[in-house]
Amino acid sequence: MNDTLNRIRTAFAEAGVTGWLHACDIDSGAEIDAGGDHPVVTASVHKLCLLVALHQRAAAGVLDLTEQVECPLTDRAPGGTGLAAMLDPVRMSLRDLAYSMMAVSDNAAADLLLDRVGIDAVNRATADLGLSRTRALHTFGGLLATLREDTGPGGSQVLTDPHVIGRLRALDPARSNRSTPREMTRLLGAVWRDEACTAEHGAAIRRILGLQVWPHRMASGFPFDDVHVAGKTGSLPTLRNEVGVIEYPDGGRYAVAVFTRAAATAAVLPAADAVIGTTARIAVDAIRAAGVTRTA
């Protein structure tokens, strides 16, 4: 156990980040805990909570996932992907909005879904699953609005200034959408065991998580054709996160949550991205090798 935890901490340090990780065998409960109960800012990882709430309401008959939604140009949440980057009005179903939200982390699609589901329903969904430290305070557009307010007239150009970074509400778990690594693996486990939703809707959630396009974080640690990685990233200035499930051909399935904060303020830090995959691999390899509960 100590060797595994030391390797994880060394990897974080060499990548120039502070990191918190929790990994567990979804079926046996065997775990690796490297700061799993530390409060963290979820950023776009919280879209997983919204996805679960959406499917719970669909399973209850409150909404129809094929319902068509108008996506006007005005008041779209900003972002560089999906609807947020499009130039014309769009009409999409709720389930296709969910795909865009998860596959390319589309903020505009996420807020359209939040309009339909409600942030209170998202918080009820996580609370009902026993995730008492997981809570959404802002829409995704609202979260980005706090960044604009806190950076002031300097705009995004000042996000390289550590003094500006230090005052951003979006980076403070007490004032932002938040959770812990352990609660995120508990949520993933509930989805994979069909405890979060009906089996039909659980399968739909797992499918969407498997369609995420970003290979540079958790998936980078598992470069094998027969190992499947399904997950959701989250990013804010200095923050790089991912939660996901790694499935092996022998039936092993492991929920992993990695949250990091970089010392450097640069927007592009390949080592900080890659260490998410590195540490996830260290943790999963240790669980597979030992087959016993490991915790710090």
**Number of helical segments?**
10
Mean pLDDT: 95
Q: What's the gyration radius in Å? A: 18 Å
The protein's oligomeric status is single chain
Characterization of this structure:
It is a single chain. The chain has helices at 2-14, 47-59, 94-103, 107-117, 119-128, 140-151, 162-166, 181-192, 199-209, 270-290, and strands at 17-25, 31-34, 40-41, 68-71, 90-93, 178-179, 228-236, 239-247, 253-262. With 296 residues, the protein is α+β, with helices and mostly antiparallel strands.
List keywords for this structure.
296 residues; alpha+beta; 5-stranded antiparallel beta sheet; two-stranded antiparallel sheet; 10 helices; disordered C terminus
Q: What's the SSE blueprint?
A:
Layout lengths: L1 H13 L2 E9 L5 E4 L5 E2 L5 H13 L8 E4 L18 E4 H10 L3 H11 L1 H10 L11 H12 L10 H5 L11 E2 L1 H12 L6 H11 L18 E9 L2 E9 L5 E10 L7 H21 L6
Antiparallel strand pairs: 1-2, 1-9, 3-6, 4-5, 7-8, 8-9
